[in-house]
Amino acid sequence: MNSEVTLKCMLGLTTPSEIMESPNTKSAHKFAKPQSAIQSTASKGAVRSISPQHANKSPPLVSQKGAKENTKPQDFKLHTQERAAKRALFNYTVATKLYLLERQKKQIEKLQKMLRKEMIPRAQLMPFFDRPFFPQRSNRPLTVPREPSFHMVGGKCSSSISCI
Q: What Pfam families is this protein classified in (predicted)?
């Protein structure tokens, strides 16, 4: 803050009397010159005043190369249309994936509900007594009984029964 005040005072943007009147600059009283000293230096031409309009401006930049005379502006192409098309395609794919996932989830829930319903133990149905049951004769031939062969081959038993 002090350096700002002294800089403004040196550049001639403010006078020391304005600085002393402002309540925010208590330490500015130390650096302010008396009014008579300012008037004496101003009359001698030692203090150079800079107008506030030119204080912040820098000298204009002059390019050393000459401007090209026959230049034409190039056509430019914005990528907004391409990006919009890509975004629409992306949004469509995301929407289809979400739809398929939701549909698959509903199918799984439906299958689970059906399986839970089937898992409930139920009593067997009563047989129908109004119609008599007549078993049908089988078409398969009867098995012919044979005797087992327990003879020894080579001194060992051929069957799993131990020989005594």
A: TPX2 (PF06886)
